[in-house]
């Protein structure tokens, strides 16, 4: 963490370095009303310092927790940095969190101030304001819709900036004094976990941990000030924090903010980032959109697409990884790049991508190989909030679909007696906020942190292979391995399947819940003149059940080829009558299934899958967009799937 003689172990030191060395280079860009606006490091630093002084004048003290809520915008990234400069602790929250979720975090961390994006976030906070005893003031960026609100505790972002601009020299001195107190071990940010297995935990991360992990990752893949990315992931997710703030600040790279979720694909194409992070659901969604488009194309275009995509699947990865390929195959791939792969990458905004990451959960090998066959350097990395993300990463010449790389600089790994992955890292968290018991259970006295993931070091590649969450891996009644995530990822490779949940621990056989992808299946329905009025109606359609049965049986055939996983074949499944929804507590904001919650909530459906029933009537509580609760009633059909014998070389059904 050094640059020349300077030790770069705090965010203020990094910002000062960026201003000194890269002052006129682009630092932040945002698309607003269709126009890209840009700030270089000198301009961004000026705004951050004005904001820091304005927050001091507003009454923000050292150690205060400042909630930051909204979509990705330079103003909110500046809010994170300004808070850190005055010795406060930023706490980013998910912008789509419902009021109850926000209440838990805001009260748990005793947030005293909030900086929010717009009226929606102001309204959610005001709905629970009586429960937020510690919250004093709210700063908003976008004034739209707030003109007639009581401004007693509401302040516009512009006013705070102006206050900082006009502040007396005593405020400047106070800011410098606070900056001088910040050390490597000072708290940098409070990030809340996704809460897959229970209530979210507040992860306390220091300046040294964030910067140490970011610099190790940057060194691994050579990120510099000339790199640029699109910051579209939730600001509360550690993945975005580390890429946009950690790596971006450490490299001096440019952070680009899209206009909104609806313009993401267009903005991605306009930015043409050099490095990009996407969780598996995003890669699945992008691939689904591609296949929806090609299904609507002419027969000639479909034929050309299928021919060249099949050829890419055959030789694309070898060409990307610079392995030997015949002249004919290389020529056909070159031709395919002109006709199919190049235009497709341009449409996806991936033409300039030097490095693409996938993280957050496991990705299916089929999906992973799809992108690499196009020439997109998609690689896997493994980490967690408690590690400042980066634990293992893949080298460009050592990329495999079923492993997640080797430990990066500053990281040690070992496998515990139970198969759990343990680590020591320069990016290790300090503690869980207000939870010494959980801290002690996760991090021992020697600094080893338990990940909660089961895995092992692959002998052939020397890379870490993650099986599943340690508490999700189990055994069937016959003692065979039960690894649900492995099977679920295979199911989600099919564009028609948005989500899958496998059950089978301590049971005789495996069964599954499936969610259809409304965009993909809706497109199929439209092309086949099948009318429907709701997700529920389409999910219950007989033809949909038949299509998904084909997908399930294809996965079963594949599982039958692996003696270790053959017992995880799916005997019966059902198509859920509603999408799993974070507002209903079924999945996290990062789209990880809360398996135990789903098992409890849908216990009647699981029981039916393990019975002789062919359908079941059910009633499910749902949360509407405005926060109201209601119930959804449906009769769900149960589908039987073919099981296959274990045959290493033969995929024929028994």
In short:
The protein is α/β, with parallel strands linked by helices. Helix content is 39%, strand content 22%.
Low-confidence stretches: 649-654
| CATH homology-level superfamily of the largest domain | ANL, N-terminal domain
| Secondary structure: number of strands | 30
Shape: globular
Q: Which class of secondary structure composition applies to the elements?
A: alpha/beta
Beta-strand content estimate: 15-25%
The spatial strand order of the largest sheet comes to: 6-5-7-8-9
State the helicity in percent bands. 25-40%
* Sheet of most strands: 5 strands, parallel
Mean pLDDT: 93
Distance between the termini: 60 Å
- What is the CATH-assigned architecture of the largest domain? 3-Layer(aba) Sandwich
The number of distinct structural domains comes to 3
State the CATH topology of the largest domain: Rossmann fold
**How many DSSP H or I helices?**
21
CATH class descriptor name of the largest domain? Alpha Beta
Radius of gyration: 25 Å
